[in-house]
Amino acid sequence: MVAARHLPIGQRTEPDFAQALGAHGLAPLRRGRVRTLQVNVGKLCNMACHHCHVDAGPKRTEIMPQDVALRVMEVLAKNPEIELLDLTGGAPELNPNFRTLVTEARRLGRRVIDRCNLSVLFEPGMFDLPEFLARHEVTIVASLPCYQQKNVDQQRGRGAFDKSIEALLALNAIGYGQPDSPLTLDLVYNAVGAFLPPMQDTLEARYKAELARAFDIRFHRLLTITNMPIKRFAQFLEREGRYEAYMSLLVNHFNPRTCDGLMCRSLVSVGWDGTLYDCDFNQMLELPLGAAREEAIHTISDVDDLGLLEGRPVAVASHCFGCTAGSGSSCSGAIS
What we know:
Elements: H1 17-23, E1 36-40, H2 66-78, E2 84-88, H3 98-107, E3 111-116, H4 129-135, E4 139-143, H5 149-156, H6 160-173, E5 185-190, H7 200-215, E6 221-225, H8 231-240, H9 243-252, E7 267-270, E8 276-277, H10 280-284, H11 321-324
Parallel strand pairs: 1-2, 1-7, 2-3, 3-4, 4-5, 5-6
Antiparallel strand pairs: 7-8
């Protein structure tokens, strides 16, 4: 057993998520109606965070081209049941098509989320970004892994905390995060180590109290998201000899009550090149869309009606224990 801890991840016997579902009468995991189109517009980012499941960074060259972005808009227009366009990256704002995607989605009457790392507001050409987002009433979901400087800088790099606070103050100044404001500002917590997030409601109250006391910052909700044992975080666990222990933690806290609310049941993830996946985590592992193998639906150019995916099985693997451990984890935070 000791020797097995140092085997490369690809050579290990990973825990079987499908088997865990089956033991609770939940296999196979099937899709409901698609309500969210989550679009990863590329891996280019102004940061290189230790927990990043995308492996994003300043040197990444994978960027969604204009033709794929236009196809995303075509599919969104043809599927009125899709309520939400969820833009992620990398830093999605660095994609030259970002503002077009936002503007067109809002013209179609859809809600839009910008998954923002906050520090991007200080990059060249981004001085008017807060006003642009406010004008289109885009929901900002901003990553802030802690309300303490030490923990944020440890995970995201020196100076990240100060930039985040400055960005939040600027967003508050134009109405984001204020009580009763239509400009929604949510924060995201990622654990700084190999442990599960605390209870979301309890931690949200602590964030609100600490940020208000220290900086007079306001926000609407805190979303707790479990660190996924893939890509950069998996490499960290491997270096520390803690990969198996973390996987055991996730498996031992499997919560079948979270399965109804898993994001993969109501979301389709679009990669920067147009490839379709069941979720953003599957996308990073290049795990093909599980729900449409018979129809040969692989990219966003292969399908107009995303309703074809309803009722079909979702592709699952061992990392799915991350979304079903404890209170669960999704792009909207805790599930139960």
